[in-house]
Amino acid sequence: MADSMWQGGGVDLDAYLERVGHRGDVAADLPTLRGLHAAHVDAIAFDNLDALLGREAVPLDLDSVQEKIVRQGRGGWCLEQVVLMAAVLDRIGFTFTAFAGRTRIRTGSRFGPALHVALCVELDGEHWLHDVSFGAYGPHEPVRLAEHARLDDDWSFDLVREQTGEYVLRFLRPEGPVELYGFTTDVRHPSDFEILNHFCLTHPRSPFNHQMVLQRTQPGVRHILAGSTLTEIRPARPATSRELDKDELLTAPADIFGIALAPGDVQALRTVLDGP
């Protein structure tokens, strides 16, 4: 296939499909988009461990992302997962662009930096919000990109549009709607990702470089680990939280989030948890 900025020609599609457990043929259609979305979020966790362990870089080139997430069985944070997903969609033949959103959940602000990146896929004259990398609060399948669009089943979401023109993705919970992020569809390119990646890795205001942040979405349960607090979300029930001790924190990546850590990474994580 011809080269593109999304590097579809360089993705190992068979290895990716095996990693996420997707069976059957793929094509540039809505059933494939839905199937890939669900399989990806079920199999691949949000994982900030490289930043927590003090790695000097979190590479965003496709080869590095595939080595880490596909071959090593790690998770990845938003930008890594978008690089991988975009390459997969490009390889299959989807038409899409990327955009950036301003996270609202946990920040209490609508005006923070636009650090979250997702994709807008065009199919048969409609546009779909395709976001596999927001972690345990994010959608499990694409959401039609239109005012008042709604996704209803065990996990429900909707889109509202504010007077500013910004869309807001909301997670509909028993305790009330949770605003996840606001966004416009202004186009972002892979070169923009590098700036966001540097902020997430190095900036003192980054939420990802000073505590463990792991998240995973599965059909009947969602888990979020922030620092030592593990939150569990189940359909139609209020979220529950508990504190993990050091031993539980060391085993949580594998046991709860399905992240395969090398022995050296486990030891490095133990050192971080032991503190100075």
Automatic annotation (TrEMBL):
Query: A Pfam family for this UniProt protein?
Result: Acetyltransf_2
What InterPro entries does the record point to?
A: Arylamine_N-AcTrfase, Papain-like_cys_pep_sf
Cited Gene3D superfamilies:
Arylamine N-acetyltransferase, Cysteine proteinases
Source domain of life is: Bacteria
Q: What family is reported?
A: Belongs to the arylamine N-acetyltransferase family.
PANTHER family in alphabetical order:
ARYLAMINE N-ACETYLTRANSFERASE 4-RELATED, N-HYDROXYARYLAMINE O-ACETYLTRANSFERASE
Instruction: Name the chain's protein.
Output: Arylamine N-acetyltransferase
Species for this entry = Streptomyces olivaceus
